[in-house]
Amino acid sequence: MAAGFKTVEPLEYYRRFLKKNCRADGRELGEFTTTTVNIGSVSTADGSALVKLGNTAVICGIKAEFAAPPPDAPDKGYVVPNVDLPPLCSSRFRSGPPGEEAQVASQFIADVIENSQIILKEDLCISPGKLAWVLYCDLICLDYDGNILDACTFALLAALKNVQLPEVTINEETALAEANLKKKRYLNIRTHPVATSFAVFDDTLLIVDPTGEEEHLATGTLTVVMDEEGKLCCLHKPGGSGLTGAKLQDCLSRAVTRHKEVKKLMDEVIKSMKAK
Amino acid sequence: MGLQLRQTFEAAILTQLHPRSQIDIYVQVLQADGGTYAACVNAATLAVLDAGIPMRDFVCACSAGFVDGTALADLSHVEEAAGGPQLALALLPASGQIALLEMDARLHEDHLERVLEAAARAARDVHTLLDRVVRQHVREASILLGD
């Protein structure tokens, strides 16, 4: 009977739960779903990570290639993110060129990388004006159940921590670059940006980590990206219902706690990998 | 490869039971190290079964090649890149019927028998594994449903 009610009146169904300060899947309003992360599973990539936030699964693969640095910044490399939402993750996506949501997600990730200065582009330079690294970060959603931005940001961070770049020397005589695959170094990850997404219901109620259905019924969404010093890297609020300053402050404090949770999880995973 | 997958599954899926319908099979390769077509077919077989779409039989695939007088089954990327003859075989194991067979590079017809046999044997091994996994999954699912 509940399933019938949910199909006919989904918003009322969710409202009944929210009135009692909990959600349809049993979570509290401020509770995240189970977060799982697996680092380094794609051995053909230079760095990789698979993140699952509840049912949402995103895999990030990073490939490093050589490129000429941009003429206006000869001592910088490139980081090129791309978010792909293929039809296999959800029936709302069609095959073909990237849809609106994929493009927005790609731009969001590019903004997070730029604003948080997660790696210094200068660190990617091999020889100023001649050769630099370009990191292609491919984020593919394998299962879509809401909160794609949080999952992508975490997957990207975990994958970047996994990237090992070989040492490159430029041969003076032939002017060719030689990569020493035996000597590899990890990237210098300067900050750890973590995204926390919220959905707004009926212009008033805020819930954290929305599922696909909750996002669909929500009147607005908000994503906050924090780094470890409590610095705000990015605030993404694409229209939707208005929020008071006080509500926004609540979101920011929740984001700070979430950052601690995620950082702890990632440190544990990396420690267990290094221990092997 | 999309076309090959379509042709393979058109031979196996009982499409007459789903008239005026379109069945979309989306495959995402996360990591490629040779035998990509075979992995796609095996994964798609399990996905189609998981979706409850009726099939004539499992479709099990494997690649095979011929190096230095020896038939090799399930080639890795390095072995494929070496440039020898390669064969991709998709098999319906119960009847032994071949759904798809594609070969490139030159191979003497005397050797074809051996290479085909290597691929077929490997495909049947894959079938044993897939069958076991599917039965295990169904058993667990029916326990959960309380049957």
From TrEMBL, chain A:
One annotated GO molecular function is: mRNA 3'-UTR AU-rich region binding
Tagged with keyword Magnesium: no
Alphabetic keyword roster:
Acetylation, Cytoplasm, Exosome, Nucleus, RNA-binding, rRNA processing
Q: Which InterPro entries match?
A: ExoRNase_PH_dom1, ExoRNase_PH_dom2, ExoRNase_PH_dom2_sf, Exosome_comp_Rrp42_subfam, PNPase/RNase_PH_dom_sf, Ribosomal_Su5_D2-typ_SF, Rrp43
Localization in the cell = Cytoplasm; Nucleus, Nucleolus
Residue intervals passing through the bilayer? none
GO cellular component term, pick one:
nuclear exosome (RNase complex)
- The Exoribonuclease phosphorolytic domain extends over 34-166, 193-256
Q: Which family does it belong to?
A: Belongs to the RNase PH family.
Q: What is this protein called?
A: Exosome complex component RRP43
State the taxonomy lineage.
Eukaryota, Metazoa, Chordata, Craniata, Vertebrata
TrEMBL record, chain B:
Q: Which InterPro entries does this UniProt record tie to the protein?
A: ExoRNase_PH_dom1, ExoRNase_PH_dom2, ExoRNase_PH_dom2_sf, PNPase/RNase_PH_dom_sf, Ribosomal_Su5_D2-typ_SF, RNase_PH
What GO cellular component entries does it have?
cytoplasmic exosome (RNase complex); nuclear exosome (RNase complex); nucleolus
Report the Pfam families cross-referenced here: RNase_PH (PF01138), RNase_PH_C (PF03725)
What domain of life does the native source organism fall in?
Answer: Eukaryota
Q: Report the record's Gene Ontology biological process terms.
A: nuclear mRNA surveillance; poly(A)-dependent snoRNA 3'-end processing; rRNA catabolic process; U4 snRNA 3'-end processing
Start and end residues of each Exoribonuclease phosphorolytic domain: 5-54, 57-121
Return one GO MF term. Answer: RNA binding
What family does this chain come from, according to its entry?
Belongs to the RNase PH family.
What name appears for this protein in its UniProt entry?
Exosome complex component RRP41
